[in-house]
Automatic annotation (TrEMBL):
All copies of domain 2Fe-2S ferredoxin-type, residue ranges: 1-75
Listed PANTHER family: OXIDOREDUCTASE WITH IRON-SULFUR SUBUNIT, OXIDOREDUCTASE, IRON-SULPHUR BINDING SUBUNIT-RELATED-RELATED
Iron-sulfur as UniProt keyword: yes
Protein name according to UniProt: 2Fe-2S iron-sulfur cluster binding domain-containing protein
Pfam families xrefs: Fer2, Fer2_2
Keywords from the UniProt entry: 2Fe-2S, Iron, Iron-sulfur, Metal-binding, Oxidoreductase
Organism: Paraburkholderia acidisoli
Molecular function, one GO term: metal ion binding
Length: 179
């Protein structure tokens, strides 16, 4: 079977029951995508297929033959990180780092969805051609990626900085405090 993984054409033979995650990790030694829950609930295995984010643990590899697959290893490299990877470092968007590759791939795919006008559960006017990435919208769109360490604030800050999302608006001062 033929794949394009991180820009490299690859021909492989394998059991057609192999998940895309197992193909990436066990056959191609691309260990960025992690096997967290192996049920599609945590997002640690998120990769991009032609720019669309998927849970690779739920996908059979044969479904994606001939398609372009990007893992965290294909987004950046040492000395030339993807801007989101650099922002994760700057904003402490990780602690143990287990979920980080999935978080980053998911955020890249999320921005493509947002730019394409795909609404989320919290999108206001679903008929709008584009949606603003408010903090609420960002958190909803990233809700399929869990962080066991709770580094969500750093993750959100990194995504906001990279993709120009508005920062959270502080609560207005009460009228008594302003006087």
């Amino acid at each position: 079977m033929h794949f394009v993984i991180n820009g490299n054409a690859i021909e492989l033979e394998f059991d057609p029951r192999t998940s895309l995650l197992d193909l990436l990790r066990e056959r191609l030694h691309l260990f960025g995508a992690k096997k967290g829950c192996n049920q599609g609930a945590c997002g640690a295995c998120t990769v991009l297929v032609e720019g669309t984010r998927i849970n690779s643990c739920l996908a059979l590899a044969v479904q994606y033959q001939g398609r372009e697959i990007t893992t965290i290893e294909g987004l950046g490299e040492p000395g030339a990180l993807h801007p989101l990877q650099a922002a994760f470092v700057e904003h402490d968007g990780f602690q143990c780092g287990y979920c980080t590759p999935g978080q980053i791939c998911s955020a890249v795919g999320m921005m493509r969805e947002l730019e394409g006008g795909v609404p989320s559960h919290v999108s206001g006017n679903v008929a709008a051609p584009r949606f603003e990435l408010t903090p609420e919208e960002l958190r909803e769109r990233m809700s399929g990626n869990l962080c066991r360490c709770g580094a969500y604030n750093g993750i959100v800050e990194a995504i906001q900085e990279t993709f120009g999302a508005p920062a959270a608006v502080p609560e207005p001062a009460s009228s008594e405090a302003a006087q």
